[in-house]
Write a structure and sequence with these properties.
Layout: E1 8-12, E2 16-18, E3 22-29, E4 37-43, E5 49-50, E6 54-57, E7 63-70, E8 80-87, E9 94-101, E10 108-113, E11 116-118, E12 123-130, E13 138-144, E14 150-151, E15 155-158, E16 164-171, E17 181-188, E18 195-202, E19 209-213, E20 224-231, E21 239-242, E22 250-251, E23 255-258, E24 264-271
Parallel strand pairs: 2-9, 11-18
Antiparallel strand pairs: 1-3, 3-7, 4-6, 4-8, 5-7, 8-9, 10-12, 12-16, 13-15, 13-17, 14-16, 17-18, 19-20, 20-24, 21-23, 22-24
């Protein structure tokens, strides 16, 4: 009488699996099926595949199936050969090899903290990360979509042995009341997918007009003083300014225009002689 050793047999429906894919494994036994059989399943690289590590062939069944799923690790680490082994007490174990296909492409990730800050001495710390091997240094170019709002280094180096690098960007206080501004920073490097970070630069000025005269006195009747009216907003468009005086003896234009491209304009205020002695 030939005695057959109790054994488990592992069959997988594919010899390869993508990191974002799955495969079906079947485990079969060659023994009496009157009782349930619990077995273990392990892999040589647990971070590459996901599956149940304790499974059971039910009573009355010769086999059971389970799903093996790839793990998207976000790293460009190449294809991997992973061995899966099944075992149970008093049973001969079995194994199979799966090729795990890397689906990741070299990519950069740019993040910021905080993402919003004042243009008055504000700053943010940015982190540039890579998903590839850190064996070599990597140069990353930085660019902004709008100039004049933040100072950004043109190149940031991720050192050899590191997966990321940090750097600071500082706000530029332009003295204009031009509202909050969204600034986009673009990180690029050859053969890598680029990444962007959007920062909100909070304006610290309030739109205002400033009026300065060449003299603080004017003689009644024939006297004249020059004034300059200035704005602290960007001169992209012309701005109409309406004027009024608290003294009827002063003659000033009711309206004037600061031209586009200019931040100020000048005008004259004259004094009428009303022939009434009423002091200064």
């Amino acid at each position: 009488m030939v005695r057959v050793q109790s054994a488990l047999f592992l069959l997988i429906d594919s010899d390869s699996i993508r990191e974002d894919g799955s495969a079906i494994a079947t485990v079969r036994r060659n023994t009496d099926t009157r009782f349930a059989l619990t077995f273990s399943a392990l892999s040589t690289e647990p971070g590459e595949l996901e599956f149940s590590q304790q499974l059971t062939i039910p009573a009355g069944a010769e086999e059971v199936t389970f799903t093996i799923r790839g793990v998207e690790d976000g790293l460009v680490d190449g294809n991997r050969s992973v061995t899966i082994e099944i075992s149970a007490q008093a049973f001969q174990s079995d194994l199979a090899v799966l090729q795990v296909i890397d689906v990741d492409v070299p990519a950069l990730v740019l993040t910021s903290q905080p993402g919003s800050f004042s243009e008055a001495n504000g700053k943010s710390t940015l982190t540039i990360s890579r998903n590839t091997s850190s064996e070599f240094e990597l140069s990353v170019s930085m660019a902004v979509n709008i100039d004049g709002w933040i100072s950004v280094p043109s190149v940031v180096e991720i050192p050899a042995g590191a997966s990321q690098a940090t750097f600071e960007v500082n706000a530029v206080d332009n003295l204009f009341a031009d509202g909050d501004q969204l600034v986009e920073i673009l990180a690029t490097s050859p053969s890598f997918t680029s990444s962007t970070a959007t920062l909100t630069i909070v304006d610290d000025e309030i739109a205002a007009l400033m009026l300065v005269g060449s003299n603080n006195q004017v003689n009644e009747g024939g006297g004249e003083v020059d004034f300059t009216v200035s704005r602290n907003t960007r001169p992209d468009h012309a701005l109409e300014v309406f004027m009024s005086t608290s003294d009827s003896r002063l003659v000033a234009p009711e309206k004037l225009t600061i031209p586009a491209g200019e931040t100020s304009t000048t005008f004259s205020v004259a004094s009428d002689d009303d022939a009434i002695v009423q002091g200064d």
